[in-house]
């Protein structure tokens, strides 16, 4: 005798939530017993999506990232000698894989009428959809995982403009402490080097930044290949009183020119290249800069961060056309983080993105975060990655800032030592929108020192462009060793490197002296890597 069918609602009450959800999908989409078995054989497709995605999708439409199973193999870039060769190789490999594997998926998204944005910096697609879309996409074989794309609020330092006292000779204390002024006396100012920055944007017309902007020729501005805005629409409601709020009215979405709706980005760029008369605030005042806005008034998402990284590998015209890896920067500053408590529950969400940038021969400098003083507080993308050069913050006495995050990195199970180095990050005076200068504190203020130092080293030895391993080796080995009484992880604070100071506080003079000992030909690299 045929048994009466059990209703879905009664059966679900007897099952764990995960299996109940699976059975609901079977009823919803009318899958056969054979296809249901196939899904179980694939390893329960529901586990592809973050818990955050499932939760938010049940509440309404949600943003998420689809990572495809096939990702480009970029290992061949290591065999290439020049940065331009690396850049073109990485760009072509990434775009070929994305174009070939995404076509069927994108067609389904079009048929479903959902919004999406295709990426190639990693083989992934940004989607805004509902619960039905998540279920349907999770069942596709080429989809490896579905991760959250939450809005992340930048930890905004507070301005202290009234306390920002200019030094007597115009050279800020932090630059003198890392011996940048001594390097200038050798006539190395970062000339011939291009710095990239992704942040809240940049006030390109600030007197301390304008002449260093690559898009300014001294008489007119051209923003193609020099600026990109990854903020295409509001990504979060603006709350009055939050953040610094500088210039919000003059920074439209899809801005065709560099702008800063917050102030944070303009401050970081000043520490890298800033110079206005006696206001000597920048480590490498003759380097050129290009920029990308990755936050909407201090709020970003993994997708906006990834979009800026993608643009840096192959900058484009303002309309997004004609990508050109030969226009890529030599080093990028990243004074932001994507914390887990804001919904970035997958620590590897940007890992392949950062690795692609490094494979393209671009040094990626990342702030460590401001979640100290406890150990294992370097826990947010992208400072956690081996492919990032991570920077903690010290004060004028070379003591670690209380807020500076410490290692080791444990969130991804690696127990990786971090930070790599430290730099001044307390009371740093720099540029601010509206031709002003303010003092701010944070690891966001420390990382730009390292970017500027990299530019000084590259102005000494231009052939090190694209050779990220060797450039990092110089930055680490030249740092002034610093020890701590605290033991983080299994590493004593008395050891070098340690999880408080890394290899130590950067020293521009020592770094340049090491660079000057490098011969003038690339074939020396094997000797360098062997430990000399």
CATH architecture assignment of the largest domain: 3-Layer(aba) Sandwich
Q: Extract low-pLDDT stretches.
A: 1-42, 158-164, 237-247, 522-532
- The figure for the number of domains is 2
* Count of DSSP H/I helices: 15
Shape label: globular
Which percent band covers the strand fraction? 5-15%
The major beta sheet can be summarized as:
7 strands, parallel
Instruction: Name the CATH superfamily assignment of the largest domain.
Output: Peptidase S8/S53 domain
Strand order of the biggest β-sheet = 7-10-6-12-13-14-15
- Please tally the β strands and state the result: 17
Please identify the top-level CATH class of the largest domain: Alpha Beta
Average of the residue pLDDT scores: 87
- What percent of the residues sit in helical stretches (DSSP H or I)? 25-40%
CATH fold assignment of the largest domain: Rossmann fold
